[in-house]
UniProtKB/TrEMBL annotation:
Protein name, as recorded: Glutamate-1-semialdehyde 2,1-aminomutase
Catalytic EC class: isomerase
InterPro entries assigned to the protein according to its UniProt record, in alphabetical order: Aminotrans_3 (IPR005814), PyrdxlP-dep_Trfase (IPR015424), PyrdxlP-dep_Trfase_major (IPR015421), PyrdxlP-dep_Trfase_small (IPR015422)
Family: Belongs to the class-III pyridoxal-phosphate-dependent aminotransferase family.
Length: 456
């Protein structure tokens, strides 16, 4: 069956590529101009991961809809790969940005929104102390440095298949039991093997073994793996992590940058967990570059001891624009007016309908695939059962099949994330958007299984 699916997928990609080029002359012309100054015609090379013949040039994005330079509109289930999880340019955030822009963008000093944001973060996520950064990558790097300073240890424990932004130590993979730098990296990263311990997700025994040397400063993880394909934690696994780590003097950080899709308090809040650190980036300021990391009172006290003992000089933690006035205004609006219980109820209800619809479409065609959901995050996985660790998730990846589905959807006005088959539901997503996506997926499945030979 796999060979037949792949043969049809190749034919589908060829047809959809030609259709895409014909429909996007303006995007093609803009890309040609941009290539004179940007490699591939894009300002950040990940934008080429869409694998479209030319990059889409977006002229507007509002709610759950984007429009390209050729005047074509799309129902957006990518949402900036979580950056616009709560919709593009939420009105409350747009108003806050416009208002603050008249009164100053940055001063390297706090404003009135600082106190309000801190109170809201503490209420939502259960940790009393917070710091802001420009990205989740920065937040994770800061957490790692603080953990090393507090514990006096160097090593970091992460999971095979993890993703924590541009953190050198986390670009590692397990191959034949060895920790090696992840494939595809640009530039050597020796610390990915020197300072990193790597174990399979959902394997508490391997975690205990990795911590046995009492030399790990920090266990850093997403509550569910999201970047190698979605892998959900088995019941009791996260609670076990906290228990085992604390017994060994290892601090624990939960990176909720993607798993904030679970609910208003993140996955951590849904299970009432108490990590030492909590990281959240991407959608926290409604789409502006921003992130936060929270920590317990015990960690804050330890930070003060570290600060008191170190010589004067730059700490290596923090950047000039972190916590700027504009970002804090956007964050305040997003936390108080956008990330509401009502928003999450809408998001998770429609995501459940999307997952059910895709499950039914798979079952009626007897495809060996499954669907995984984490709150407002849904993923189509090319294996019969959900993966339990990063290795199983990687084995299920099928770039050709992904490209065929993504192009088919794009040419019919629906966008899903270019990484895997991940779909996000925002407060602005409608039931009609979900129905349209399920219907189009079913049509593509029919073509791939030979039930429909032509292109609707």
């Amino acid at each position: 069956m796999r060979d037949d699916l792949h043969a049809r997928a190749e034919a589908l990609v060829e047809r959809e590529t030609a259709a895409f080029v014909a429909a996007h002359p303006v995007s093609e012309a803009l890309a040609a101009i941009a290539r004179q100054n940007y490699p591939g015609g894009v300002p950040m090379h990940w934008m080429l991961d869409w694998e479209t013949p030319v990059p889409l040039s977006i002229v507007s994005a509002s709610g759950a809809t984007v429009e390209d330079a050729d005047g074509l509109s799309y129902a957006d289930f990518c949402l900036g790969d979580s950056g616009a999880l709560f919709g593009h340019s939420p009105p409350a955030v747009a108003r806050a940005i416009a208002d603050q822009a008249k009164r100053g963008l940055t001063a390297m000093l706090p404003g009135p929104d600082t106190a309000l944001v801190g109170q809201q973060l503490a209420r939502l996520f259960g940790l009393p102390f917070w710091q802001t950064t420009a990205t989740a990558s920065d937040a994770n790097r800061a957490v790692i440095r603080w953990a090393r300073a507090i514990t006096g240890r160097r090593k970091l424990l992460v999971f095979d298949g993890c993703y924590h932004g541009q953190v050198d130590e986390t670009f590692a993979t397990l191959e034949d039991g060895r920790v090696v730098p992840s494939r595809g990296l640009i530039g050597p990263i020796p610390s990915a093997s020197d300072d990193t311990l790597l174990v399979p997700f959902n394997d508490l025994a391997d975690v205990e073994a990795a911590l046995a040397g009492n030399d790990v400063a920090l266990l850093l993880t997403e509550p569910a793996l999201t970047n190698t394909g979605m892998v959900l934690p088995q019941p009791g696994f996260l609670e076990g992590l906290l228990r085992v780590a604390r017994a060994k003097g290892t601090l624990v950080a939960f990176d909720e940058t993607h798993t904030i899709s679970t609910g208003r308090g993140g996955h951590t809040g849904s299970l009432r967990l108490s990590p030492d650190f909590f990281v959240l980036g991407k959608p926290i300021a409604g789409g502006l570059p921003a992130a936060v990391y929270g920590f317990s009172a015990a960690i804050e006290a330890a930070m003060r001891r570290v600060q008191a003992a170190r010589p004067d000089g730059y700490s290596g933690i923090g950047t000039t624009l972190s916590g700027n006035l504009l970002t804090m205004a956007a964050m305040r609006a997003c936390l108080t007016e956008v990330m509401t219980d009502i928003s999450y109820l809408h998001m998770t209800s429609l995501a459940a309908a999307l997952a059910d619809g895709l499950d039914a479409a798979i079952a009626t065609r007897a495809l060996p695939w499954c669907v995984i959901r984490l709150g407002a995050r849904v993923e189509l996985v090319f294996r019969e059962t959900p993966p339990s660790n990063g290795a199983e998730a990687r084995e299920a990846l099928d770039p050709l099949m992904e490209r065929a589905l993504h192009l088919y959807l794009l040419n019919r006005g629906v966008i899903v994330t270019p990484f895997h088959n991940m779909m996000l539901v925002s407060p602005a997503t409608s039931g009609l958007d979900v129905e349209r996506l399920v219907t189009l997926m079913g049509e593509a499945f029919d073509i791939l299984t030979g039930r429909a030979g032509g292109m609707p």
